[in-house]
Amino acid sequence: MDFLELMERFPTEEHVIQYFIKVRYNNKPTCNHCSSEKVSRRTDKSKVFRCNDCQNDFSIFKDTMFEDTYTDLRKWMYAIHLFLNAKKGISGLQLKREIKVTYKTAWRMLHKIRAAMSNKGAFDSNFFPIVEIDETYIGGKPRKGAKIKAKRGRGTAKIPVIGVVCRKTKQVHAKVALPDKNGKKLTGKQLLSVLDEAVTRNAIIVTDEFTGYRALSKTRHVHLTIDHTKEYARGIRHTNNIESFWATLKRGLYGIYHAVSVKYLQNYVNEFCFRHNNKQNPEIFNQVLVQSIKS
Length: 295
Ligand SMILES: [Zn+2]
Prior knowledge:
Layout: H1 3-9, H2 13-25, E1 39-41, E2 48-51, E3 57-59, H3 73-85, H4 92-99, H5 103-118, E4 130-138, E5 159-166, E6 172-176, H6 188-198, E7 204-207, E8 222-225, H7 240-255, H8 262-277, H9 284-291
Parallel strand pairs: 4-7, 7-8
Antiparallel strand pairs: 1-2, 2-3, 4-5, 5-6
Bound molecules: zinc ion.
The site of zinc ion has 8 residues, from loops.
């Protein structure tokens, strides 16, 4: 969908409301309190309905990203459109300029869209047969003149992110790995737990030679390694797919978002996973709206 199609699809806010009623209720709004279908709209343009059974009012936007918003819904549609189509994401400042809202509003909108991207159904988990797993470190660049730190960022303030990719479907799953309660960074346990969330048992797992992956010997997976100090690839032994995802993630995080606090890092990682995993999905726009509905 391009910009013109978007405008033709949503010439008024009412079109957005109707579209949302279709997505959420399959065109038949039901009462949020008692599930009755006997409901009527409060006024012509209202997002509030009254239930004729229990007599309660409910908003069709309850428990969605549009709950509590006063911003024109067409601006929301445009924001989602921009967000999905910008490979590296967009910043609050950019969105503020594009849709003429305050920076605070733009920031909140992006935050909510990003949260929707993180919700259920974000990826299809049954990675098989060949899976790559790798880690990267997100954080500030070393200061000028500072000694280059250990290769895997130990002793630096950088935060590890663990990523898994299914080589067949190219689906990605990635998780921020905060130090465990003993302050230990990136344990075998953490690596396995991310793997377990996405991968079918008995898959072939390709990694580099990081010692954390020795934990794979306790699993039913076949473990292949590539020694990156010697070569990039040997046959199916490579981690090129996950590394190219890391490159996109880092370009986005450093280029558009500059600094991301640890608190929100997982949300940003989810944003990039969602965009990557739905690249070929013609219903990507719908998908965001569907995922914005908290169940
Ligand atoms: Zn009711």
